[in-house]
Amino acid sequence: MEPKNRLNEVEEKVNDQIARVRRRGGRLKDEVVTLSHGAGGKASAALLDHVFFDIYGNQLLEQSSDSTVVTVEGERLAFSTDGYVVSPIEFPGGSIGELAVNGTVNDLAVAGAEPRYLSVAFILEEGLEIETLRRVVVKLREAADTAGVHIATGDTKVVPKGAADKLYITTSGIGVIPRGRELGFERVAVGDRIIVSGPIADHGMSVMMARGDLAIDAPIESDSREVASLVKKLFDDRIDVHWMRDATRGGLATVMNELAETTELGIALEDEKIPVRPMTRAACDILGIDPLYVANEGTFAAVVAEADATAAVEALRAAGADGAAVIGRVVDKPVASVVLLTGFGGARMVDKLVGDPLPRIC
């Protein structure tokens, strides 16, 4: 069955009323904060909308991005901040140190910025071994050097034993957006292609395996890395990039839903083209977790012009992103929805993450 026919079948099942309900977003019904509120899915969106944005929302926050773009004396800057509470603090392929740098650097990069400066704040639990802290700080410094950013300021606090889980890190970053780089939801159009820079779900599953709570021995490493060099390659090669986002909490499914809802267009993904490493997929299957919802820390999704899709993938692979691939396209219907076209000729709706299958993965 052709993809277009499959989309038509799904369209018949998703009427305008359902689409309108989905675009309105969820209500905040909870009386206490739960781990789901930190997962990046529906509960997170409800908490942000009905507590934070209701109280101090403004035009800058309405950009709905992990980085805010501001203009200062004629220069466009991207500004981002993020907190890291991953458990365990060291895992295959990374630690909370490089995660804190890469996460903020990547938020700046996918806004089109060249990352320049970071601030780093540590919250340390009484009893943390100094050697453990030293390893984390060394990895943090190495990640900053790799990304070409300067650690310009910071802070350190110590809390009593039991008031934290070893250590937490908050990083904020500033990057400069070169003239001519224009990214945004408003640039996304029907016919554009969706690409990813590499395999998905490695980070979340790596952290899950490292916790040792499961009787599964799977050598999965986090994909934690800076993507600023990959983004720069796309622009250096004059790829017509319309929008980008790193697929962290909530995974690829959540960022695709944010794209669909904001643009009021449809996103058609092809299951067989979405790269997932065999070991990662096997671990997800055993645990009953969909890789689409698992967090990534070195993989981003982008919307590019149809004519540039192949060139975009080639550019990313030339820059070291071996798993880069075209995974779907932007369509006009079903509106504000994400559809996954399966290899068996079927199609299913892909909603935002509900609940939190992998708490504290970043």
Automatic annotation (TrEMBL):
Domain PurM-like C-terminal: 190-338
CDD domains assigned: HypE
Matches recorded under InterPro entries: HypE, PurM-like_C_dom, PurM-like_C_sf, PurM-like_N, PurM-like_N_sf
SUPFAM superfamilies, alphabetized: PurM C-terminal domain-like (SSF56042), PurM N-terminal domain-like (SSF55326)
Superkingdom of the organism of origin: Bacteria
Gene3D superfamilies documented for this protein: PurM-like C-terminal domain, PurM-like, N-terminal domain
Domain PurM-like N-terminal: 66-177
Pfam hit, one: AIRS
Family: Belongs to the HypE family.
Descriptive protein name: Hydrogenase expression/formation protein HypE
Protein source organism: Corynebacterium breve
Taxonomy of the source species: Bacteria, Bacillati, Actinomycetota, Actinomycetes, Mycobacteriales
Gene expressing this chain: hypE
